[in-house]
Design brief:
By secondary structure, this protein is mainly beta. Helix content is 12%, strand content 66%. The chain has an eight-stranded antiparallel barrel with strand order 1-2-3-4-5-6-7-8. A hairpin with a 2-residue loop joins β6 (131-147) and β7 (150-161). The protein starts with a helix and ends with a helix.
Length: 191
């Protein structure tokens, strides 16, 4: 198994693994998105795409706050005016995330979230070009509660990959509520 596949596997398992001895509700979010890199050299990194997967749990003493972990994969193209097509690059990220969300009339959810962690990136096909560094992000989103287990929405984000580039992105969000739901929570979600 390659190093990239191993990192991706560990990240996925850590996000999806259940907590030992815990039976409370948690949220799995999947966010496919389109990215526009903001770099010092606008000709180097072109538009890219990716997906983020996160797992969050509510903080009991502060209801609109949730915390969790997230992992992502982005694939982008590189090009330079004088050198031509430079191929593609992959970026794998892992971060701790926090989310503040407000529900309006049990139908619409507005969220502000952020995260910080690290990333591993490199040019595809060039094993010697891979490197790692720190990163941070911020998001703003709005969603529609379609059922007690699913919210669908859109989200905009700013993501800063230190010393590499930063980007703005827009994408879809799908939040799945999993785990045991108390009778009170179930009643609130159905209204």
């Amino acid at each position: 198994m390659s190093k990239n596949a191993f990192v991706a596997l560990l990240l996925t398992l850590s996000i999806l693994s259940p907590d030992c001895g815990q039976s409370q509700q948690f949220i799995i979010s999947i966010r496919p998105q389109f990215d526009i890199p903001l770099t010092p050299d606008q000709n180097l990194f072109l538009t890219s795409g990716g997906v983020m997967v996160s797992r969050r749990k509510s903080v009991h003493f502060l209801r609109p706050l949730s915390i969790g972990i997230a992992g992502g994969y982005h694939l982008g193209r590189m090009q330079h005016a004088s050198l031509g097509n430079l191929g593609s690059h992959s970026l794998i990220s892992a971060e701790a995330v926090t989310d503040l969300h407000w529900t309006i009339r049990q139908l619409i959810v507005i969220s502000i979230s952020g995260g910080a962690g690290c990333f591993y990136t490199g040019e595809n096909g060039e094993r010697s070009s891979w490197a790692t560094d720190l990163m941070w992000s911020g998001q703003l989103g709005i969603g529609l509660i379609t059922s007690s287990a699913l919210t669908i929405g859109i989200q905009g984000e700013y993501r800063n990959f230190r010393r590499l580039y930063h980007l703005i992105g827009i994408g879809l969000t799908m939040d799945f509520r999993l785990g045991n739901v108390s009778r009170d929570q179930s009643r609130k979600l159905k209204l």
